[in-house]
Specification:
7-stranded parallel β-sheet, 8 helices
């Protein structure tokens, strides 16, 4: 994909990875960057730096997301790239069982990490299919390919997000729709909070949001389905596929090493 001259939407664009994506897309010559965030003020602050438009948006609300897509398409004629990027993290909590998180946490994870991608695609696909082209970039996580020690709800919904991205690519590749799943490990954003070294997600180092944006630009140019800012993830994924039981044992060892982390 060529970003120059494109119309791009980024959800969760007010900070972290989303903010870095907006800045980088602007540098790459996107004709318009639309910044959507739960906090309108954050979206407006980022939009002001990229000559973009800002929307205050809860991605769990399908009607609001569709309304934004409709407005952008009416104003600019199309959406070339939709980055469904919003995400949350919580941790299992005491007593650190895989079932410890509340039902409300599980539901929020499902709504934001899975259904928000569904809503975005549902809103964008009619226009993209009619044009015979379009790109959907879903921010997932290495946890969707591997797992996240200490956060079963996060891991489970990120696995589901990978499954949905695969379904999009399989079902709509012949319609001219490109799909990528962005799967970083630890990134220096608000999501890792006070865990300076990134906890179990940071075993291969904590990279910057700008590093992730570079990986995204490279991945979009190559039109790769999996975009892995931490290249080690490809090896871990191969080891998991080669010997699932051994991989599970290694993950248990990692959990023992870090105790009961929140990340």
């Amino acid at each position: 994909m060529q970003l120059e001259g494109s119309v791009v939407v980024v959800t969760g664009g007010g900070n972290g990875i989303g903010k870095a994506l907006c800045a980088r897309f602007h540098r790459e010559g996107a004709s318009k960057v639309i910044v959507a965030d739960l906090k309108l003020g954050d979206a407006e602050a980022v939009a002001a730096t990229v000559a973009g438009d800002a929307y205050g948006l809860d991605v769990r609300e399908e009607a609001a997301l569709k309304s934004m897509v409709d407005e952008v398409e009416a104003r600019y004629g199309r959406i070339d790239l939709f980055c469904s990027n919003a995400g949350i993290i919580a941790g299992d909590g005491e007593p650190w069982w895989a079932t410890s998180a509340s039902n409300a946490t599980w539901q929020a994870m499902w709504d934001i990490h899975v259904m928000a991608h569904v809503y975005a695609a549902r809103a964008c696909l009619p226009g993209m299919i009619a044009r015979g082209e379009g790109y959907l970039l879903n921010t997932v996580s290495a946890a969707g390919l591997l797992n996240q020690v200490g956060d079963a709800a996060y891991s489970t919904t990120k696995h589901a997000a990978i499954g949905f991205a695969e379904a999009l690519a399989i079902t709509h590749g012949d319609d001219g729709i490109k799909v990528s799943a962005l799967c970083p490990q630890a990134v220096a954003t608000q999501m890792i909070g006070s865990v300076e070294d990134g906890g179990t997600a940071g075993v291969d180092g904590v990279i910057s949001p700008e590093d992730v944006a570079q990986a995204v630009v490279d991945g979009l140019a190559a039109e790769r389905f999996l975009i892995l800012p931490h290249p080690q993830v490809a090896d871990y994924r191969a080891h998991k596929a080669a010997n699932y039981d051994r991989w599970l044992g290694g993950m248990r060892k990692l959990r023992r090493r870090f105790g009961h982390p929140n990340l």
